Amino acid sequence: MPDALAGYHQELSIDQQLALRTAAARLAGEFDGTYGTETIERFLHSSYDQFASLSTVPNFLPLLAERFARQRLHALARVEGKHRDGKPVVLFLCTHNAGRSQIALGWFTHLTGDRAVAWSGGSEPGIEINPAAVAAMAERGIDITAEYPKPWTDEVVRAADVVVTMGCGDACPVFPGTRYENWDLDDPAGWDVEGVRPLRDEIERRVRRLIDQLNIPAA
After folding, report:
1. 124-176, pLDDT tens digit by residue?
2. Domain boundary at 84, 108, 136, which?
3. Structural domain tally of the chain?
4. Are both 163 and 112 inside the same structural domain?
5. pTM of the full predicted structure?
6. Given 84, 104, 124, which residue is the final one in a domain?
7. 137 and 62 together in one domain
8. Is 105 a catalytic residue?
9. 38, 101, 144, 216: which has the fewest C-beta neighbours closer than 10 Å?
10. Could you tell me if 30 and 119 lie in one domain?
11. Choice among 168, 196, 199, 210 that is catalytic
């Protein structure tokens, strides 16, 4: 792969530059035949930039950028008709992508397995997942510690069959032809585990209903 990363973000450490080059090569292998070097590096660079102003752990930025770029490229492939697996795609959106939408994502993924695709995003992404949300989900045997707050992008929204919004108001994106649902749920920011439990259980009920509506077999 040509070293198109040369000169990009000169302020990056040698380790970060190496990590981004490694990520670009890995994505190029995964999307070989679908997207070329220029597209892959553009998505990786823009994904890195979106996290750079938010993250307090710079060493994790290349990994977050790679994960987000991979999701965005998969979404773009669906939008452009380059990837057709017949699986429904659901996108959960809230303000900080740290509580409600992550709980919903956790439930949806847990209940559908590989029978559907679920993503999440926020209008004003936070720094980390709400610890009380993580603990409340762990009580039900669902681990969401690998998730991270992230913004949404046009290709991710366009790829979704259903967009579930939770409190992002006018900031939530709207595209014609996409099914939207608004779940009126309180933001659990600052809550303890005891306070999050009823929200967790309400989101479970709504996710199960959505799965039934989409006729997705339970995992």
Report:
1. 999 899 999 999 999 999 999 999 999 999 999 999 999 999 987 777 778 88
2. 84
3. 2
4. yes
5. 0.91
6. 84
7. no
8. no
9. 38
10. no
11. 168
Do residue 105 and residue 63 come from a single domain? no
- Please write the tens of the pLDDT for every residue from 45-90: 999 998 887 665 567 889 999 999 999 999 999 999 999 899 999 9
Active site residue 212: no
41: containing domain:
12-84
Q: What CATH number has the domain bearing residue 51? A: 1.10.8.1060
90, 94, 160, 163: which one is catalytic? 94
94 is catalytic: yes
Q: What is the 3-state secondary structure (H, E, C) of the chain?
A: CCCCCCCCCCCCCHHHHHHHHHHHHHHHHHCCCCCCHHHHHHHHHHHHHHHHCCCCCHHHHHHHHHHHHHHHHHHHHHHCCCCCCCCCEEEEEECCCCCHHHHHHHHHHHHHHHHCEEEEEECCCCCCCCHHHHHHHHHCCCCCCCCCCCECCHHHHHHCCEEEEECCHHHCCCCCCCEEEECCCCCCCCCCHHHHHHHHHHHHHHHHHHHHHCCCCCC
